[in-house]
Amino acid sequence: MATTVLGVCGCAAASSKRVFSSLSSSASPSSSAACYLPASAARARASIRALQLHSTFTSQNWSSQFLHVEGDKLPFGAKAKSTNGASRVGTVAANAALEAPPKDEIKRGGFRSKSPQETNVVIVGATGYIGKFVVKEVVKRGYNVIAVAREKSGIGGKSGKEKTEEELRGATVCFSEVTDAKTLENALRGKAQSVDVVISCLASRTGGVKDSWLIDYQATRNSLDAGRALGASHFVLLSAICVQKPLLEFQRAKLKLEEELMSVGEGFTYSIVRPTAFFKSLGGQVESVKGGGPYVMFGDGALSACKPISEADLASFIADCIVEEDKINKLLPIGGPGKALTPLEQGTMLFEIIGKEPKFIKVPIQVMDFVIGILDFLVKIFPNLEDSAEFGKIGRYYAAESMLVLDPKTGQYDAEATPSYGKDTLEDFFRKVVRDGMVGQELGDQAVFK
């Protein structure tokens, strides 16, 4: 069956094939399991903490606090007031971005006055899909890059040390397990006496409950702590735009890490990058359509929209975050160039490129709701089905929610408010994939249907 990707936001989606196969499989042991806020100084941190940003999110009331600030900005060190926003959509972290601290405080980091050749940048998640692009871009800009990788990396752990070192050419490769804090710190000490910046491209490959907390939270937190232990004063986090409406475990895990990162305190800065859809996530049906198959979508094909960004453009934006002052201590939603596109528009574009008459299959969203309902019931009896239930919810989320900035006042997604960056377009990507195939674009665990 053709691969249909609902996926987006760079977050790992899971194969629905696993969801349905889980229904017929016998119960088996469940998977093993695995939690600072915008403030670069104690003053801002105190204001944020007063807003109770450690609220517990649930699907019924997943947004318990909203931020209302003068002039739509929270100046460094300013106070803000919060109001209960249970009836609205969004989170306090959705669109509220702190302004950068005064320049004299920024300079305390020290590294911003160095040349790239004198700046040590650690990149974790370096062998992941986006991580590889980030390593390449940061190396190209002349920084001393220490790329952290597992000894067996890539999809299914197929890449050994030699292949990994070849893929990360130009960087010093540090082989370590990011899930063990002390092991990671010791491994980094063996590669550098000090660190200036840490960039995290870590993300759960499946979006499963335990894996999300192990990777999106704990491993990323380990990277933060290890970097600080070696003197890092800036952290660039690759998050996801979908965390602004947190209904899934990986979103909650990412949000908790964001909060802890933003509350590290004075002398430490951050940039939190929240991208929309990656091109890769939207290319799963190209081969099927090229072969004469239909384009599959949910509802009328207009339930959601996104402003997809290429992996190379996203890597460039992340590299900008190393030193650019307008990206310091900010939540940074980012999409690619051009208008927001619905699945219907994406499919129509693809048929035009291939030169075939459009042929669509529209799947009622209620089908997913039915399956999720069954799984939620079964997980009470068979806890090992926990991930299968979560995978179904991930697929449903991607089918119905836009990967755009969410306006907390209106509860609507806003394409105009979603920043654009880069030059690569989805149309160019589709043309390339139609011509060359998905070489280097393997979907792995991110496919929703296979």
UniProtKB/TrEMBL annotation:
> Signal peptide span per the entry?
none
Name its GO BP terms in alphabetical order: chlorophyll biosynthetic process
Could you state a single Gene Ontology molecular function term?
Answer: 3,8-divinyl protochlorophyllide a 8-vinyl-reductase (NADPH) activity
Q: Which residues form the NAD(P)-binding domain?
A: 125-323
Q: In which pathway does it act?
A: Porphyrin-containing compound metabolism; chlorophyll biosynthesis
Family matches, as Gene3D superfamilies: NAD(P)-binding Rossmann-like Domain
As for subcellular location, the record says: Plastid, Chloroplast
Enumerate the catalysed reactions. Answer: protochlorophyllide a + NADP(+) = 3,8-divinyl protochlorophyllide a + NADPH + H(+)
The protein's UniProt keywords, in alphabetical order, are: Chlorophyll biosynthesis, Chloroplast, NADP, Oxidoreductase, Plastid, Transit peptide
Keyword Repeat on entry? no
Q: Name one GO cellular component term.
A: chloroplast
> Which leading EC class covers this enzyme?
oxidoreductase
Assigned EC number: 1.3.1.75
SUPFAM superfamilies reported in the protein's UniProt record: NAD(P)-binding Rossmann-fold domains
This chain belongs to the protein called: Divinyl chlorophyllide a 8-vinyl-reductase, chloroplastic
**Which organism's genome codes for this protein?**
Riccia sorocarpa
